[in-house]
Amino acid sequence: MTKTVCPYGLWPSPITPEYLSRGKRLAEVGWDADGLILVWLEERSDRGVLVCVNNNGQAPRELTNTLSVRAKVGYGGGEFTVGHGYVYFAEQSGRLYRQSVASGTAKPLLEAFGYATSPCLSPDGAWLVYIHSYEGTDIIAIVDSEGKQWPQKLATGADFYMQPCWHPSGKWLTWIEWDHPQMPWDGTRLMLAHVVTENGQCPRLLKLSVITGDTHTGIFQPTFSPDGMLIAYISDQNGWSNLWIYDVNQKTCRCLIKEPADLGVPAWTHGRRTFGFSPNGQHIYFLQNERGRWKTGSVEIATGKISTLTALSDYESFAQLAISPTTSTIAVIGSAGTTPPQILTYTPNAEIKIHTQAIDEPIAAERLSQPKPIEWASPSGGTIYGIYYPPTNPDFEGNDRPPAIIQIHGGPTGQRDMSFSSTNQFFATRGYAVLEVNYRGSTGYGKAYRQALNGKWGIYDVEDAVSGAQHLLDCSLAHPERLVIMGGSAGGYTVLRTLTTWPGFFKAGVCLYGISNLFTLDAETHKFESHYLKSLVGPLPKANAIYQERSPIFSVEKIRDSIAIFQGEEDRVVPKDQAELMVNALKQHGVPYEYHLYKGEGHGWRKAETITKFYTAVEAFLKQHVVSSQSL
């Protein structure tokens, strides 16, 4: 088949801004206690909707149609739990609700007071433990599952709490907690407490103890075994996020899977899961990250024997692993480079069932770009990692070399993996090469790689972004005069910082809710990250000179390249004054720029109309400033 010659970046693509706005985000999945009903969360535009399906072959049906399911503690997550025929969920107002999975309407369990997340139902279905946040104070709280009594405090005193989990007998509770200035991947405590209920009163905690963890060890997802004899958890104490178990009777810990690979993820949001026990408690199913490509496996607890679930090998990224408590059926959100996210279930030695997918009208894989992990050498030594998307369109070919978009993820403790990226496909199918840079500081390559950015934010991330672009140039995969750097949040900071330190290297920058002033960010950001800069940059006032030097707002006069800035008006993480200070400075220094402020949006886009506007604006900006100079 003969292809039509068309300049890179101008190829017609079936992935339009409107097409992207119709997609939904699959955020969570969970089983009822009987293992027969599966519930998941779909984020449709700015609404969160719970959907359920049972094993009788009926079609999925919506559980919530008027309320929006969305937790708002920190970055969110931990929206719901299921048990005894009911789903308990956090509504965007901050209240917890109870909803029958059979029929009926939702009932509020709490008054409108603060924000709740991570509901966790007791084994007998009588009590609901949850995380509550109000005016900067976080606690573990408890309420009866019918909402007849006033909620009570269970655990207080720590700055943060996550991932509460009941013992199968209901007599013990475990959770994660930590204090400033640590982030949850820096240092946490794995806690265990005895649950006491007297004379029908609200339970209380006794005998609180620290099982493991400290200010230098990140613990993740404590989970009791079905018989209650073990607590499984993820710990990075050996340099990788490996799977450990704690023997409740012997009070001993041992590493169950000790490999140079990460089995956990940074707890940026509540409710994240990467493993689960089989119903008989003899195996643990797990997810494992190998340089951006995920795989599923199981480990026999008694022997440590590991098996790979080869039936799921067509998928390259997984999230929110959930095991049916009765049938060993695995539910998970799975995707791959050319496969949009899906809610799927798999019973060993049976077929995979797909219950829903993020895109109702998926595009054929051959029309999409197939990403691949790549590596390159850092100028200061060591290996840097990334995911490369070649420009792909079966109907068109370009001339010369393509423009390239260097994508910088947020966090900065994030990672771009081999999951489906509608954003990167939007660009690659138009003729852009795309490189996702997993710079030093990223997750997925061990603790040392993640910690390398400490004290070096604004240096190593910039260096790795530039060296990644240079690697594409050296391999003749990009045009030297058509390089773009793009990123959001911490990635947006790297965009601004790179444009001030490497003026002229990139043709243009696209900055989404990026950070321009480290001083004001330290003073204004939300509680979760209010001490984060101490490790990334340094403590104030001692590090005043470093904050000054690395804040892009104080070096605007060095920028020579066109820039588009996008900001949510209601952003609590990176307030809009970060963008507007930068815009005013760009205007004063005559730097070509665009500024787009989206009403009703926070730290990222949820509304369908915003998504349409955003991609339309970015495409127009790149046509004007990057690809317009190509010879037709």
What's the mean pLDDT score? 94
CATH architecture of the largest domain: 3-Layer(aba) Sandwich
Low-confidence stretches: none
The figure for the number of domains is 3
- Level-1 CATH class name of the largest domain: Alpha Beta
CATH level-3 fold name of the largest domain: Rossmann fold
The CATH superfamily of the largest domain is identified as Alpha/Beta hydrolase fold, catalytic domain
Question: How many E-type strands?
Answer: 38
| Main sheet record | 8 strands, mixed
Structural class by secondary-structure content: alpha+beta
- Tell the overall outline: globular
Structure description:
The protein is α+β, with helices and mostly antiparallel strands. The chain has three domains: 25-273, Neuraminidase, CATH 2.120.10; 274-362; 363-627, 3-Layer(aba) Sandwich (Rossmann fold), CATH 3.40.50. The protein has ten helices and 38 strands. The strands form nine sheets. It has an eight-stranded mixed sheet with strand order 30-31-34-33-35-36-37-38, with helices on both faces. A hairpin with a 2-residue loop joins strand 6 and strand 7 (86-90). Helix 4 (460-474) packs across helix 5. It is globular, with a radius of gyration of 24 Å. The mean pLDDT is 94.
